[in-house]
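The protein record filed below.
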Amino acid sequence: MTRPSPELATTMQEVRSGVDAIDAELVALLAERMRFMDAAARIKPRREEVRDETRKAEVIARVKALAAERGLATDLVEALWERLVEASIAHELRAWDRLRAARPHPERATGRQTG
């Protein structure tokens, strides 16, 4: 879907069309981002590794800097990414649990219990 440039929009229909096109792109990008969270869940060996506060802070700082470069309100971006990163962590935790639930546990296979 092509979208008009905001500077060239002369009607509300063009504005709405542009916003709708951007929304569709954002949803597609968010879906792709969550697939990366699925990959992280597959790769990380321990559930405790899913939440990484250092990485979270780095991500938010990076997008705030990008926002500032583009003249976008950094407080808006910070609030959005705080919510996005927390939703991503929750998604990754569910994916991590789902992947491990599908695998047989060693103690079940041998009849021994660990721990």
